[in-house]
Design brief:
Helix content is 31%, strand content 20%. It has 311 residues and is of the alpha/beta class. A seven-stranded mixed sheet has the order 3-2-1-4-7-11-8, with helices on both faces. A two-stranded antiparallel ribbon has the order 5-6. The chain is globular and about 55 Å long. The relative contact order is 0.15. This is Protein-lysine N-methyltransferase EFM4.
Amino acid sequence: MAAEQPSHPNHLDPSELGTKEYRDSDADSDGGEDDHGGEEEESITERPLDPSELESWFDDVGAPAKTLAFLTDISFPLSAEYLAEHARNSNNGEHGHQATHAGLPTVLDLGTGNGSALFSLRLEGGYKGDMLGVDYSSQSIELARRLGRQYLNSSATASSSAELSVDDAASEKPGDIAFETLDLIQDDPASQPWWPKAGGFDLVLDKGTFDAISLSSSTIHDPASNNERRACELYPAKAARMVKPGGFLLITSCNWTEDEVIRWFTRPGLEQHDSVRLEIYGRIKYPVFEFAGQKGQGVASVCFRRLEEIY
C-alpha cells in the first residue's frame, strides 16, 4: 500500500535562517546595541518616528506599503474608513453591510522584529486598538520597546492618514502598543497574561515568520500521532487559534507560493483542530516575473478570515 501523502506542501530544507541565533543577529543589525548609553536613548526619544525608516521585511517589492494599503482600504472590514462609514450609516438609520467587529480592532504581530508594522498601522493606518508584537528573540523585543518609547514621543504630533470624526468608534483614545517575548511553537499564547478575554485578536499579521519556522529543523512531539513533526506543520493551527472568530490572518511569504500558503493554512482540520476553519478573504498582488516559461511573484500575501467555530 502506498504511503499516505501529506495534505501540506513538501518541506523546505532546514537553514540557519530558521534559527534563533540568526534572528538575534538580525535584530542587532536592524537596531544595534546602544553604544552611547543614556545619550543615545535620549536622542531616540527626541526624534519623531517615521515607520518607513524601519522597514526591513520584503521592502524590495514594496510589501510594507502594499500591506498598509490593503489593510486601510475602505473595503477592508477593520479599516478606519470602513468603520467610519459603518458608523455614519448606523447613525442615519441605515443597516447596510454589518461591521464584523465592534469598537477598536486589536492587532497581533507574530515575529514583530522592530515593530515597524504596528507603528505603521497606528501612525499611518488609523488603527487605534490595542496592539501587541511578539517575538522569540528577546533582543528584537528590546529594540521594539525602545522604538515604542520613541513612538510615544512622536504620536503627540503625528497625524493619521485616516482620521475620523469625534463621533466615530476609532476616534476613541488609542490603545496600548506592547511587545512581549513568546516562542510561537513551544509557548501557549492563551496562558499569557496579555491574552485577550475575547479569545483572540481581530487581526493577526505574519510577515515572514512562517518562512523562518519552515526553515527550522526543530521537531515537536505530536501526542496525537506519537511522532516527531516539523514545527511548521503545527504552526498554521496555532496561528489560526490566535485569531478571533470572524477576524483576519494575513500571511506574507517569500518562500512559499500563493497556492502553497493557501494549502498550508486551509487544509482540513488544521492538524487536529477540527473547530478551526480559515477561508480566503483576499490577496495582495506584487510584480510578476517570468523564468523558464513560468510566471510567479517573489512574495505572496494571502489574507484569511477565521470562520465561526463548528462543533
